[in-house]
Write a structure and sequence with these properties.
The structure holds two protein chains of two kinds. By secondary structure, chain A is an alpha/beta fold. Chain A has two domains: 356 residues, Alpha-Beta Barrel (TIM Barrel), CATH 3.20.20.70; 35 residues, no CATH class. Helix content of chain A is 41%, strand content 13%. In chain A, helix 5 links the parallel strand 3 and strand 4. In chain A, helix 4 packs parallel to helix 5, helix 6 packs across helix 7 and helix 6 packs across helix 9. Chain A is globular. Chain A starts with a helix and ends in a 16-residue tail after the last helix. By secondary structure, chain B is an alpha/beta fold. Helices cover 43% and strands 16% of the residues of chain B. Chain B contains 26 helices and 20 strands. In chain B, helix 5 crosses helix 8 and helix 15 packs across helix 23. The termini of chain B are far apart. Classes of the chains: A alpha/beta, B alpha/beta. The structure holds iron/sulfur cluster (2 copies).
Chain lengths: 396, 640
């Protein structure tokens, strides 16, 4: 029996997949057959519905004491020329400037700044709520929360409670990287360990908070490490049920300590999305973060197990400093179209996946879709730096 | 459209003598808009909705797949037909090669089936007596071909006029009758409208009755015009050709479709009728059955292709295409080429609406590359281990044929690079400029060093779409004609499709079918690439169907439809290296080229770059081995 039919049989019998199954799935050479299985599971959960939201990302500081190899912010000290920390007013302005078409969610992720007072982080949240009381604040990764606990000498629970009192609604999934201790040591030695990361989520869940989680793949880890990572997520989810979405993030090599590694290719992205969907039987959503994979591959991912494509996002710097050539934001209409082109039903959601607005599926199945916005294609084009043999030339 | 026009019935008839009794009487009917064409054009008109009813060669009906036969009328034969003959100097069993007159695909399929049935294995080549007018000219066109172990299938007037010039002749309709005990149907009235009006059927029927009474006069007229014998022609119209489509003919037609399907020559075809015979309800096969047939490499009709595109899921299409790819290329190698696209001029008179590259004559940004600049570019290709130049440009009225000849000779003398140059549109442009045939242009360019012809400018090979994209674009038949000529000279070419403007899904499938039809004739296409129209400021056309999903589906469908084209390429230049890589799993076995530049696409705002190492990594990650190739798809490096 082939690996896939074996796994199919297990799933049909209601058997849970194990570590070996996960590794076998990653080694499955038939990408489409793998995707098809993930797609069936995705459609069983969500049908054609594909979620996105109106969100905004803010990085208030890129100063960081840690030295993650994959990060272009690593060991950036406050006095260095590229370092930047927003004043609270600057950070709030990001929202107040957008109040004519406000985001429903703000996503804040930062470097680990050693010199800011805890009140800065609290006040940041309060300020956003003052500008827009119903905005959902999904702020500070588990790594930051853990760092705050150490720096400000509080327990994780205390940190979370104070931030919640200031307006925190949920935690983003960043900072998970790869849980395996060996790999983690090599790429991200001086921040929260896997257990510490998971612990922050456990505590947040126990307080009734929902969170997301991620996996940074395609650098020095093996398939075994990826499976181990996914299964640790599954184990915690069995315990708490607090994860809403799992977000595999493709490693981008430019401008960081691993720039000699090749980036994972699109096929690896799709394979990872698919295996994540197949293994994570208890996490409702798998998200293709379009900034990481590019809008085109994210669109394909909607048939490889993903049911969420993130949001409109304005202003994203982490991936952009690492060489992502994709646009900084997609308009609402572009996201709708991106989803419709894949033959799916676009659903604008709030942070808890409640339906804000559901759109019709485009005309005939997944086959035909008419672009209404003339500029569409151009905006979706991924402009990579030209690294061709002879470079681009001006013709005679 | 005026009420009168709307009321008109658009009829396309084959203009040959044996069809005249069916349409002669329609000529004077003001309610009928009658077009008289060669069979290929008749098929095109029905396929592209330029005719409501057409006298279709039955092979064409099968290719479309969604046609209904009008009851009771046909061009058929019970026994010898006289006008479709295999002639030779030696007995059939001794034949090694047969030259085919490709103007009738139905006869070609019949000839292949009969030879296979008689266990006679031959090579096929082509024969082109279409310009011959008199028996003398026909003899001159055919006689030198039929020599020794090489025979020829001749049809129409040449068959009637010069059959007795050869010691051996096999009447193919007679051979069919002997084999199956059934009549053979060559053509019949067909429509795509399942509700074709009973009154129109009656009109065609009345025309036939009137036309049959005119047979002697028609024979005489034709004989006089072509220096043939009126007696022979009259006998031909009265005795050889049968104009009924009765039960026996329907059985014969069904048997022909079955045999041709089994031989992989035609799609699986059911004979269906318009009213009043539309008795059998349409029961479409389950999608799974169709997918299974597609994956098995069976020939698909236009209607089937259209259905797959509309109904099959991304995975179903991809997996079926991947299976076909695996069977055609079991070694699991994906190739790529190191070459360079040089646009020698951007001056162009065509002004395609999707093109942001061209400049009109006299525009300050217009350019023609100098030898110096070209030489530098070519040297860089040589230095980088490149093997070929893809040379294309606008339709520049200031460059005579000698300019190209000199350029090619110089390039060939100075640099050892393959010359993949001048798309059909440019060839036609030069032929018009010089007032000579495209064949002559190609011959002279070939002599000057042209190695192969790029398939650019095909866009969508449906004239309705072409007229909308650019008023002055060459017709689909002209584009295919240049390729036919080039292939007959031994030049190979690629085929392309640019979709995503104003075409329908059906028109994209028709495009594929036209390439497949020509490939059946010539076998000259090496590979097929498609991409969607790249929108940019400065273009003057609205984007149509587009998106990454559609690209993958479209490419997979191309693999399924183009059963006779060896290679399908993934167009990473337009889709980006990521989607291009994924596309390798959707039926592709080639990753295109490591490019230096691509002005036509990159001025449209899509700029990607990857180098050879990037290509190889992506190919391997997608589960294949990679090898460099030349324009003929020979491996230049061992697969890694
Ligand atoms: S990944 Fe986060 S913790 Fe690591 S260096 Fe970058 S900003 Fe700091
Ligand atoms: S696509 Fe070619 S033929 Fe059309 S305008 Fe551009 S250069 Fe001229």
């Amino acid at each position: 029996m082939s690996v896939l039919s074996n796994i199919r049989a297990k799933l049909q019998n209601g058997e849970r997949l194990g570590f070996d199954d996960g590794v076998a799935l990653f080694h499955e050479p038939d990408l489409l057959a793998l995707g098809q299985l993930a797609n069936e599971l995705r459609e069983a959960r969500h049908g054609d519905r594909t979620f996105f939201n109106k969100n905004m990302r803010v990085e208030v500081t890129n100063v960081c004491v840690a030295s993650c190899l994959f990060c272009s912010f690593a060991k950036l000290e406050a006095h260095m020329p590229d370092a930047h920390t927003m004043s609270l007013e600057e950070a709030w302005k990001e929202l107040s400037d957008r109040m004519d078409d406000p985001p429903s969610e703000i996503h804040v992720v930062n470097g680990l700044h050693p010199g800011l007072p805890f009140e800065y982080y609290e006040e940041l949240l309060r300020g956003y709520k003052r500008i827009k009381p119903d905005v959902h604040l999904k702020c500070y990764t588990a790594v930051e929360i853990h760092f705050f606990a150490q720096l400000y000498k509080m327990s994780v629970r205390e940190v979370l409670e104070r931030l919640r009192a200031a307006g925190l609604d949920s935690l983003p999934g960043g900072g998970a990287e790869i849980f395996d201790p060996e790999v983690r040591k090599k790429i991200s030695d001086d921040k929260a360990t896997a257990d510490e990361y998971l612990d922050v989520h456990r505590i947040a869940h126990s307080m009734g908070m929902k969170t997301n989680t991620t996996m940074l793949f395609g650098h020095i880890e093996t398939y075994e490490h990826r499976v181990d990572h996914i299964l640790r997520v599954r184990t915690l989810q069995d315990e708490t049920g607090g994860f809403q979405a799992f977000i595999p993030l493709a490693f981008h090599p430019d401008g960081n300590g691993m720039k000699n590694l090749p980036a994972p290719t699109a096929v690896d992205d799709l394979r990872t999305f698919a295996v994540s969907r197949i293994l994570l039987d208890n996490v409702p959503h798998i998200k293709a973060f379009w900034v990481s994979s590019g809008p085109d591959v994210a669109q394909i991912a909607l048939r490889f197990g993903c049911d969420d494509i993130d949001g409109t996002i304005v202003h994203e710097t982490i991936y952009h400093s690492a060489g992502s050539g994709v646009p900084q934001g997609l308009t609402y209409e572009h996201l709708v179209r991106l989803i419709q082109e894949a033959g799916r039903v676009p659903v604008e959601r709030d942070t808890f996946y409640n339906v804000v607005k559901e759109f019709p599926k485009a005309s005939v199945g997944e086959a035909a879709f008419k672009v209404r916005d003339r500029k569409a294609k151009k905006h979706l084009a991924v402009v990579e730096p030209v690294r061709s043999l002879g470079g681009k030339e001006i013709a005679g | 459209m005026s009420a009168e026009k709307q009321d008109q019935l658009r009829v396309a008839g084959v203009r040959y003598l044996n069809a005249r009794p069916l349409w002669e009487d329609l000529k004077s009917d003001p309610r009928i808009a009658l077009s008289l064409e060669i069979p290929r054009e008749v098929q095109r008109m029905l396929a592209e909705d330029e005719a409501d009813v057409a006298l279709m060669p039955v092979a064409g009906a099968a290719t479309l797949g969604d046609v209904f036969f009008v009851p009771n009328m046909a061009i058929a034969a019970r026994g010898p037909v006289q006008s479709v003959l295999l002639v030779s100097e030696v007995p059939l069993e001794k034949l090694e090669e047969v030259a085919l007159d490709l103007s009738s695909r139905t006869s070609v399929v019949l000839a292949k089936l009969i030879l296979a049935h008689r266990n006679i294995r031959v090579r096929f080549t082509d024969l082109d007596p279409t310009t011959a007018r008199t028996p003398q000219e026909m003899r001159e066109a055919v006689a030198p071909v039929v020599r020794g172990t090489r025979g020829a299938v001749i049809i129409g007037d040449p068959a009637l006029a010069i059959a007795d010039a050869f010691p051996y002749r096999l009447d193919l309709a007679e051979a069919w009758q002997e084999w199956k005990g059934l009549p053979f149907v060559f053509a019949a009235w067909c429509t795509r409208n399942p509700n074709f009006a009973a009154s129109d059927v009656a009109r065609l029927q009345a025309a036939k009755t009137a036309g049959l009474a005119l047979r002697d006069a028609l024979a005489e007229e034709h004989a006089a015009a072509h220096s043939l014998s009126p007696a022979i022609l009259a006998r031909y119209l009265h005795e050889s050709i049968r104009y009924e489509l009765g039960d026996a003919e329907i059985q014969g037609l069904t048997a022909f479709f079955d045999e041709a399907y089994r031989a992989g020559l035609l799609p699986k075809t059911e004979v269906r009728f318009t009213a009043p015979l539309a008795n059998r309800p349409l029961t479409p096969v389950p999608l799974e059955t169709l997918l299974g047939r597609a994956a098995a490499g069976e020939r698909l009709s236009v209607a089937e292709g259209e259905r797959l595109l509309a109904e099959a899921s991304l995975f179903e299409l991809g997996l079926a295409a991947d299976e076909v790819r695996k069977r055609k290329h079991p070694h699991g190698v994906v190739t790529y080429i190191v070459d360079r696209n040089v646009n020698y001029t951007n001056v162009c008179t065509t002004s395609c609406r999707f093109c942001a590259f061209y400049r009109p004559v006299g525009h300050p940004e217009g350019y023609v590359l100098s030898r110096e600049v070209l030489g530098q570019k070519l040297q860089e290709v040589v230095d980088a281990g490149g093997v070929q130049i893809l040379l294309q440009g606008g339709l520049n009225p200031e460059l005579p044929l000698t300019w190209y000849e000199d350029l090619f000779r110089w390039m060939k003398a100075e640099y050892k690079l393959g010359l993949h140059a001048l798309s059909p549109e440019e060839i036609i442009h030069i032929s018009e400029l010089e007032n000579i045939s495209t064949a002559e242009v190609l011959e002279r360019l070939h002599a000057a060093g042209l190695d192969s012809v790029p398939g650019g400018g095909a866009e969508i090979l449906v004239d309705r779409v072409r007229r909308r994209i650019a008023k002055t674009k060459c017709s689909s038949e002209a584009w295919l004609g240049v390729m036919r000529t080039a292939h007959r000279m031994g030049l190979r070419s690629s085929a392309t499709m640019m979709y995503g403007t104003t075409e329908t899904a059906r028109e994209r499938v028709l495009h594929l079918a036209k390439i497949r039809d020509l490939q059946d004739e010539t076998g000259g296409f090496t590979a097929f690439f498609c991409w969607d129209f790249q929108y940019e400021n400065g273009v003057r056309i609205e984007p149509g169907d587009t998106g990454t999903h559609l690209y993958l589906r479209q490419q997979a469908l191309a693999r399924l439809m183009l059963d006779n084209v060896d290679h399908i390429g993934a167009s990473w230049v337009t889709q980006g290296p990521d989607v291009g890589q994924v596309a390798l799993r959707f039926g592709a076995d080639d990753f295109g080229s490591v490019m230096f530049e691509e002005n036509v696409v990159s001025s449209a705002g899509t700029t990607f770059g990857i180098n050879a190492a990037g290509m190889e990594t992506r190919i391997r990650e997608a589960g294949f081995k990679s090898a460099r190739r030349n324009v003929r798809y020979d491996w230049l490096t061992p697969p890694l």
